[in-house]
Amino acid sequence: MTDPATDTRATPLAELHMHIEGALEPELIFELAQRNRIDLPYADLDDLRSRYEFTDLQSFLDLYFANMTVLRTAQDFADLARSYLARAAVAGVRHAEIFFNPQAHTARGVPLREVLEGLGDALAGSEAEHGVSTGLIAGILRDRPVPEADALLTDLVGSGAPLLGIGLDSAEVGYPPSLFVDVFGRARAAGLHVVAHAGEEGPPDYIRQALDLLGVERIDHGIRCVEDDDLVDRLVRDRVPLTLCPLSNVRLRVVDRLADHPIRRMLARGLHVTVNSDDPAYFGGYVDDNLARLRADVGLTDAERERLARNSIEASFASPARKAELLGG
Ligand code: HPA
Ligand code: ZN
After folding, report:
1. To test the ligand 1 pocket, which listed residue (279, 282, 283) has its Cβ within 8 A of the most ligand atoms?
2. 60, 199, 293, 317: which could join 222 in a potential S-S bond, CB 3.0 to 4.6 Å?
3. Alpha-carbon distance 317 to 156, whole Å?
4. Which atom of ligand 1 is nearest to the CA of 101?
5. What is residue 201's DSSP assignment?
């Protein structure tokens, strides 16, 4: 397989679906706990690593939210983002649209400005340091109260921080997109891009709701669209990007084994799919690891890898000039 990091002919990647808090590696958890004088409930690194066995989305989210309590200061957020950007560059990523979960921090007393300042600092230096252009997307926690999301949007817009858009994530089933019509309408009116997790554990109807009620431009995951032929027809016709995360799907038991992942069938059907790492510190790797495993376990070809890379750049919110540069055109 072509290695995007070294093969100058291969189209580079845009990573469109990763949660920066999900790039918090075990070593950094211990380092930040020490820096911030936080007692961790783990004896050592091995003890922490032994907990990375998940049965579903919620079992992962429990550990994800517990571990991110080590993030307190702007410096912590900057260190986290820098470590991700350096690793993503090695993976062949040249453009990254990065989710963060403001409510997960403000709810435990960390001011929004600390989060925005730290992430902003790291992202501002990314193109010069790593050759990776970036954008930030605030992920709304769909299992928290809707008025909290509304207040968050007001705070984000008022902060003046450079924000690409908003997304919708966390526990999906029971929290349909329809709850967030007003918040997403306000975000669109404010000129923000809008995306949403839908059809990961939730039914295909949540994908329809995200498109029809929230006006999203991409669907995060969306893998369960394959259960609904009419929906697939529509996604193909409208070229709606789906940001798939294959290793995440295995670790959260959305599919039994990577060999069962429908990504090649989805590509062949004409769906606009991309490959992403979701929470790379938790799910067994970064975007290059996802592609290598797809090659080994489902027989992903070089031509398909190239299609995925081009899809990722076309589906990004990068400027037309940046897209042309990345597509080599
Ligand atoms: N799904 C929903 N919420 C998330 C995920 C995910 O895969 N990762 C981090 N938050
Ligand atoms: Zn996700």
Report:
1. 279
2. 199
3. 19
4. 10
5. S
- Global pTM value: 0.97
* Annotated catalytic residue, options 200, 201, 227, 314: 200
Q: Nearest residue CA, atom 3 of ligand 1?
A: 170
Cβ-based neighbours of 296, under 8 Å, separated by 6 or more: none
In this structure, the chain runs to a length of: 329
Q: Which domains does the chain have, with CATH numbers?
A: 11-327 (3.20.20.140)
Closest atom of ligand 1 to 22 CA is 9
Active site residue 227: no
Neighbours of 150 (CB within 10 A): 15
75's tokens: 């410096």
Tens of pLDDT along the chain (329 residues)? 555 545 556 899 999 999 999 999 999 999 999 999 999 999 999 999 999 999 999 999 999 999 999 999 999 999 999 999 999 999 999 999 999 999 999 999 999 999 999 999 999 999 999 999 999 999 999 999 999 999 999 999 999 999 999 999 999 999 999 999 999 999 999 999 999 999 999 999 999 999 999 999 999 999 999 999 999 999 999 999 999 999 999 999 999 999 999 999 999 999 999 999 999 999 999 999 999 999 999 999 999 999 999 999 999 999 999 999 999 96
Q: Best substitution site from 24, 56, 59, 60 to test ligand 1's pocket, by max atoms within 8 Å of Cβ?
A: 60
